[in-house]
Design goal:
Layout: E1 33-39, E2 47-55, E3 61-68, E4 78-82, E5 89-91, E6 97-104, E7 107-115, E8 121-128, E9 136-139, E10 145-150, E11 155-160, E12 172-175, E13 196-197, E14 203-208, E15 213-220, E16 225-233, E17 240-245, E18 251-256, E19 261-268, E20 273-281, H1 285-289
Antiparallel strand pairs: 1-2, 2-3, 3-4, 5-6, 6-7, 7-8, 9-10, 10-11, 11-12, 13-14, 14-15, 15-16, 17-18, 18-19, 19-20
Length: about 300
């Protein structure tokens, strides 16, 4: 059965998740914007290193802290690597390297870092994206390549990784087409907002806010290359932003930024296809009426599979 979808006010106990790779969190004392946190140690360790992607003033780059998995407490965050606007981060499957979509003197780039034994990170290299700033990043389970989504460029890019984790020059750029046009100013053209893979890594998924779809690609990890496969239709004007799979991989939960809702799809892992089941509001109309502005930004599934 699909997980239960909670209202926007999540129980604070969910901040003590253990078996996850990434967790969105805000620490306004430190940064104007803090989109993602990554853990790098085994789930059963008492303390793990975590890394924060940041943006805005006075952020200076990627920050590092420690997370106590028993108490749910975060230690003081310190600057780990200075680089411009490292919005989202991704770990290599072996947890030996860290990747970021960021900005350097040449413009939007993918940055690769080596994670040292003491938790500090060392820059390996940067590679230009070449089609605007990256909005999201994901590393394939094989560790052979990573993907980036360009919200402004309307594209998805493939970057090979060498055996040492170095990010190589972009090998493929796929430009999405069209625009649903339902919401003026937001859906006049494609806006890929997230990239990720199916649990078996055979397919790649790209929620596109501008065209109201999850675009699905078949993965050829040997090339590496993405091949068009299909799509999942979101509700008109929904504005798909981020998505997650259920713990057992049987369902997809799509977060709709513009409609402030979550759409549940059944997922056929063999065929790489979806079936839309239901849509649940993230906020009631009463709550939304009390706010000047509302926008859904991130979604995550609890390890027990019961809550989102």
């Amino acid at each position: 059965m699909p997980s239960q979808i909670l209202p926007s006010a999540l129980n604070k106990r969910q901040n003590r998740l253990r078996n996850i790779n990434c967790l969105p969190i805000r620490l306004m004392r430190f940064f104007a914007c803090l989109p993602i946190l990554l853990t790098t140690a085994l789930a059963f360790a008492a303390n793990v290193d975590v890394y924060f992607g940041t943006g805005g003033t006075p952020s200076k780059g990627i920050y590092r802290s420690t997370f106590d998995t028993e108490t749910g407490e975060l230690g003081q965050a310190e600057l780990a690597a200075e680089i411009g606007s490292p919005g989202f981060l991704a770990l290599h499957p072996k947890r030996t390297n860290l990747y970021a979509v960021a900005q350097n003197d040449q413009g939007p780039c993918v940055a690769a870092y080596r994670i040292k034994n003491n938790g500090s990170i060392e820059l390996i290299n940067t590679t230009p994206i070449g089609d605007g700033s990256g909005a999201h990043i994901a590393v394939h389970l094989s560790g052979k390549f990573l993907l980036t989504a360009q919200y402004g460029g309307g594209s998805v890019a493939v970057f090979p990784l060498d055996s040492n984790g170095k990010v190589e020059a972009r090998s493929q750029l796929i430009e999405h087409k069209g625009g649903s046009g339902v919401v003026d100013g937001r859906q006049d053209k494609p806006h890929p907002h997230w990239v990720g893979f199916s649990p078996d890594s055979r397919y790649a998924f790209v929620p596109d806010l501008g065209i109201d779809q999850i675009v699905i690609y078949k993965v050829d990890e040997n090339s590496p290359k993405l091949m068009p496969h299909g799509h999942a239709e979101a509700l008109p004007g929904a504005g798909p932003r981020h998505m997650r799979f259920s713990v057992d991989g049987s369902y997809i939960y799509l977060l709709n930024e513009l409609r402030l809702s979550v759409t549940t799809f059944a997922y056929d892992s063999e065929a790489g296809t979806t079936k839309q089941l239901s849509t649940t509001k993230a906020l009631s109309e009463v709550v939304k009426a009390k706010e000047v502005f509302n926008s859904s930004s991130e979604i995550i599934v609890h390890p027990n599979g019961r809550f989102i």
